[in-house]
Specification:
Layout lengths: L25 H5 L6 H27 L4 H23 L4 H8 L4 H50 L6 H4 L18
Length: about 180
């Protein structure tokens, strides 16, 4: 083991060094991968907005006659609710990678089903609001969506995956040796 006085500084590979005459960006010096930069900016903005919102929201609640302790409870419950929503929403982030992994022999079909679901929900959500908002109001819309999510959670328990779709991708999905050239 060498003594601290005899150690040489670690050299940076040429590819990682900035071009001559240029210094590294602040982001690079902080060690933030460039692909995550905008995510960190978003977190910064939302956390700042959360602090500003809490400041204005607590003043609004106090102006409405709520005691400071009650306003603090409302803000705490709001924070916990937003955190739980974020945790639940994070489950959807890797879905476009997980869906094809669940059907390795039929990745195209799996992605098509995922895209159909995303497109259908993009249509169905505003359609539900347009149809029911006048009759049930905003609170009713929230209950409709909560009930739809609950119905989906119950229905998903009764689905059984087709073994053909979940089989490992070791064999091709079809035997193409007997298909004439150009007929795939």
């Amino acid at each position: 083991m060498s003594s601290p006085a005899r150690r040489r500084p670690m050299r940076t590979p040429a590819a990682a060094r900035p071009p001559a005459g240029r210094s590294r960006s602040v982001i690079a010096r902080l060690g933030i991968p460039p692909a995550l930069t905008w995510g960190f900016v978003g977190v910064l903005l939302f956390m700042t907005g959360d602090g500003v919102e809490t400041g204005f929201f607590s003043k609004y609640l106090a102006d409405q006659g709520l005691a400071k302790a009650d306003a603090a409870v409302v803000i705490a419950v709001y924070g916990v609710t937003v955190a739980l929503y974020g945790i639940a929403l994070a489950g959807y982030v890797p879905i476009s990678a997980l869906v094809p992994a669940l059907a390795p022999r039929h990745k195209g079909q799996a992605m098509s089903a995922l895209n159909l679901g995303a497109g259908a929900s993009t249509f169905a959500g505003p359609a539900v609001v347009a149809i029911a908002l006048g009759q049930v109001g905003v609170q009713g819309i929230a209950w409709i969506f909560a009930l739809l999510h609950l119905a989906t959670a119950v229905a998903i328990r009764f689905l059984d995956p087709d073994p053909e779709f979940t089989a490992p991708a070791t064999a091709p999905a079809f035997d193409d040796r007997e298909v004439p050239a150009g007929r795939h």
